[in-house]
């Protein structure tokens, strides 16, 4: 264990030195065409199991393309040592398509984010982000109103890719993305950055929400969004143990997946101090983590979960007081998620369950 900690410490220091070096050009680490290393996999209810490959360099329009401009589009960007087949992306895809009609695009950049080359993966972020931005502009030309109808979700390093997506769009004079969600954005090489343009930050989208589950380890502790949700105070997650940092890190996408089917399952609280005394926390009215996060939400929030799935303290099966006259969420409206029927739940209508 001491060897692991020492190795990780040296890695973080070296990463900070590399990313702060003005003579480093991330594009120098890419050989050949970016399209050889990054692919875009589209899933809809027409093709839930087999992806349709989108090619932003193609000008042709094919009849078998299942992309539907009238549906919300979600772009998911995986993290280090993953690809589009990894559980994080597949979990996001399955949950959304079970919920309704969506265009789900999984960005696969695993060749540029492979173990053990974390430094290289960090240096590749700008190029990957620029190519995803190219995809978004290509989609916009095909009827996807991305400024009102697009949600970008990134896990770990993928969250910081989203920042470079935003920067590239701005550089080309395009409007901001409606929403970016960072699922435990990577901490190593980003925690102490003095220039926010090199990582995900609140200016990257109209609404940036962050879920923190692995502070001071694989995830970032700094509040970097409009709304930052610290799950169990961002410390080792219940059921993971103190040494299993991968479990705590991955808990972020697991929680978001659960929130898609249970939008009101993760009510948030505001706490006066950074501590474990729940008595000093007060519920934040109509503030929920995950899918139902309201774009008007601002601040640092705290969320408690159960030890095992379902992680929500307000599981669907145990919610007895949620109004029964709630209308179904209309996913094809131009206001992204509408917003989840205006969240008319009152504080005293929450049913809480702990193990």
From TrEMBL:
Gene3D superfamilies linked: alpha/beta hydrolase
InterPro entries in alphabetical order: AB_hydrolase_fold (IPR029058), Lipase (IPR013818), Lipase_N (IPR033906), TAG_lipase (IPR000734)
Family membership: Belongs to the AB hydrolase superfamily. Lipase family.
Record's subcellular location: Secreted
Record-given protein name: phospholipase A1
One Pfam family hit: Lipase
Main location: secreted
UniProt EC number: 3.1.1.32
Signal peptide from the UniProt entry: 1-20
Keywords carried by this UniProt record: Disulfide bond, Hydrolase, Secreted, Signal
GO cellular component, one term: extracellular space
Transmembrane annotation, as ranges: none
GO molecular function, one term: phospholipase A1 activity
GO biological process, one term: lipid catabolic process
Domain Lipase: 37-307
Catalytic activity: a 1,2-diacyl-sn-glycero-3-phosphocholine + H2O = a 2-acyl-sn-glycero-3-phosphocholine + a fatty acid + H(+)
